[in-house]
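Input (structure):
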């Protein structure tokens, strides 16, 4: 099923294909995508929707010298297939295999590792300005492909405004499929819907512009009148006035699944002076009926079997996850308190919030891919007297750092931040690993930061956080929910929980790594080594009483966290000990080192970093050996 695809070693091979062969190749690429989903979860519907666009781009431009950026990068699978990586395509999203996002280390055709939305236009504008300054004679074309869901990000309009002012030859391809992951929201979505209803061709638009440009202007009042008429004609006939007013030539909408038509318009784009926005209409999941009918569920579905081409059966039923536990706690909170509202940033499906949206529609807000808006909006809701919950991925919350500072912490407003996907997210890789949140949250005054040790903790912490009069954050991983102990203690502000005491040393677990910490202690007990375990629960405020007691009374203390060692939980423990004048020579930290962690299964990555039960037990044995071997240093007496 890959007769043509198997022969494509670089985009140059595409140039020898006929129109019919390009259409056949598109079908083979779809088949390759379906084959991949027989083995593992991967981004699916978004990639099915850009196959023809990918082929049109690579047969119109020469991206061995021109520039191409994808926003966001989860729609880059077809691009990888035709840029020399098809032979390794079956390894995508596996440890040591291809990344599911653009990766400059894999190919010179990947310029940025794009896992977050909205930055392509800014980076593309920077590339164009840099190329014009350093090598103007080359006349490189720069193209940014951005989805309509990402397009509403504020940074996109900052870049459009600057690009229009600089008047650089920049091409923005708006891939309009009426979706982000879930159906898009907001007035910009409605505007794009209206544009999609127009059927004027770029040639007609160009002719109208030419005619309007030759209308004579006589006198000030007549000039104003004719300008108004000209603007009305543009608005009524041409569409795209928003982009025209920002200084862009607007072309489209264009059928994004017609390769010849796409090539025609992309050739037009190459001839324009100044920035151009090409509006391309695609269908998410195109060519695979189940994904066409339900693109949300097929954004990144579980592996499935196919029968008769398109009938599917999913291979596995996922276990209950921490995301589900968090969702159920949010539902319970909204049921019990009419003041509680929920906010998400285009991740209703990812955060499993569909039942919240359906049951409490008036108290549910999806703000699109606009995380800064989500946090500042929540601050306004809190100031009005509501109790907002912002449910968002840890890696995406970073985009609202200034709003956490200015609008939440500085005002000390009672907003609950629910940080899904905290820690290592597995096959999504370094763009999505939520390992920085402890460092960037615990520095803020008034902020309470919680890390539940298991599912029971998470269920208890949501109502506790909503009872506080300050901003709170709860982080939890993309993982199967575990229950470490049957009867957890009630949650008390800044209080840790002893799981077991031990004379040989103490492990302080931060978050759901509590489970492998307890398993490590069980392993060590079988070897005759009695190690205690503390469930930290709080990163801020820290339970200094319990923790300092452990440091002073244990032969060694090991902190364990699924976050960066720099500025993380272990650093907070060291700071507390130093401030109290406690000897920290018996204290060690285990967590994410100072480098980006590549993609792979979460279990694989934890094992590589020594954060699984075996690695934690091994580190405890090493620390116990160090303590046993350590002898007091000889004291030199003054003569």
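Output (sequence):
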């Amino acid at each position: 099923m890959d007769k043509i695809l198997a022969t494509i070693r670089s985009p140059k091979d595409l140039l020898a294909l006929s129109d019919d062969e390009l259409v056949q190749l598109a079908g083979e690429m779809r088949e390759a995508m379906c084959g991949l989903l027989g083995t593992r979860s991967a981004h699916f519907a978004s990639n099915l929707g850009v196959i023809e666009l990918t082929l049109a781009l690579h047969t119109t431009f020469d991206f061995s010298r021109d520039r191409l950026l994808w926003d966001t990068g989860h729609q880059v699978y077809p691009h990888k297939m035709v840029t020399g990586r098809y032979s390794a395509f079956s390894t995508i999203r596996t440890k040591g295999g291809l990344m599911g996002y653009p990766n400059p280390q894999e190919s010179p055709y990947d310029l940025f590792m794009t896992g977050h939305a909205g930055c392509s236009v800014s980076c593309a504008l920077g590339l164009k300005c840099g190329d014009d300054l350093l090598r103007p004679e080359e006349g490189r074309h720069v193209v940014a492909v951005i989805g309509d869901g990402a397009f509403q990000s504020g940074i996109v309009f900052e870049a459009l405004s600057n690009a229009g002012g600089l008047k650089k030859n920049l091409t923005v391809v708006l891939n309009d499929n009426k979706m982000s992951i879930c159906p898009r929201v907001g007035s910009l979505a409605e505007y794009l819907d209206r544009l999609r209803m127009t059927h004027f061709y770029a040639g007609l638009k160009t002719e109208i512009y030419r005619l309007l440009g030759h209308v004579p202007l006589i006198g000030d009042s007549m000039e104003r009148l004719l300008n108004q008429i000209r603007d009305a004609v543009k608005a009524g006939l041409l569409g795209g006035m928003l982009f025209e007013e920002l200084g862009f030539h607007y072309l489209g909408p264009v059928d994004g699944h017609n390769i010849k038509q796409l090539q025609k318009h992309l050739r037009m784009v190459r001839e324009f002076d100044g920035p151009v926005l090409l509006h391309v209409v695609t269908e998410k999941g195109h060519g695979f009926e189940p994904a066409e009918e339900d693109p949300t569920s097929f954004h990144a579905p579980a592996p499935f079997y196919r029968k008769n081409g398109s009938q599917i059966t999913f291979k596995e039923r996922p276990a209950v996850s921490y995301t589900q536990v968090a969702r159920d706690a949010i539902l319970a909170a909204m049921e019990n308190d009419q003041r509680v509202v929920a906010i998400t940033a285009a991740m209703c499906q990812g955060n499993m919030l569909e039942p919240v949206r359906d049951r409490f529609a008036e108290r549910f807000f999806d703000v699109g891919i606009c995380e800064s808006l989500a946090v500042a909006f929540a601050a306004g809701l809190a100031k009005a007297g509501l109790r907002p919950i912002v449910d968002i991925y840890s890696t995406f919350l970073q985009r609202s750092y200034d709003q956490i500072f200015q609008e939440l912490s500085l005002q000390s407003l009672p907003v609950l931040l629910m940080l899904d996907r905290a820690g290592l997210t597995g096959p999504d890789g370094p763009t999505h690993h939520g390992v920085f949140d402890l460092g960037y949250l615990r520095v803020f005054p008034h902020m309470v930061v919680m890390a539940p040790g298991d599912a029971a903790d998470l269920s208890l912490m949501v109502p506790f956080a909503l009872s506080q009069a300050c901003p709170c954050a709860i982080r939890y991983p993309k993982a199967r929910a575990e229950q470490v102990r049957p009867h957890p203690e009630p949650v008390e502000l800044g209080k840790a929980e002893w799981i077991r005491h031990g004379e040989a040393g103490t492990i302080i677990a931060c978050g759901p790594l509590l489970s492998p910490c307890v398993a490590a202690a069980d392993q060590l007990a079988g070897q005759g080594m009695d190690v205690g375990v503390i469930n930290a629960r709080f990163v801020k405020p820290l339970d200094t009483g319990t923790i300092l007691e452990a440091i002073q009374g244990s032969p060694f203390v090991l902190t364990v966290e699924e976050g960066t060692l720099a500025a993380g939980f272990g650093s907070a423990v060291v700071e507390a000990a130093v401030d109290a004048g406690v000897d920290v020579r018996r204290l060690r930290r285990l967590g994410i080192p100072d480098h980006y962690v590549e993609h792979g299964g979460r279990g694989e990555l934890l094992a590589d970093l020594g954060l699984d039960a075996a690695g934690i037990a091994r580190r405890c044995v090493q620390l116990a050996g160090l303590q046993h071997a350590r002898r007091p240093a000889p004291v030199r007496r003054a003569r």
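Notes: The chain has three domains: 5-198+239-293, 322-475, 497-629. The longest helix spans residues 220-238.
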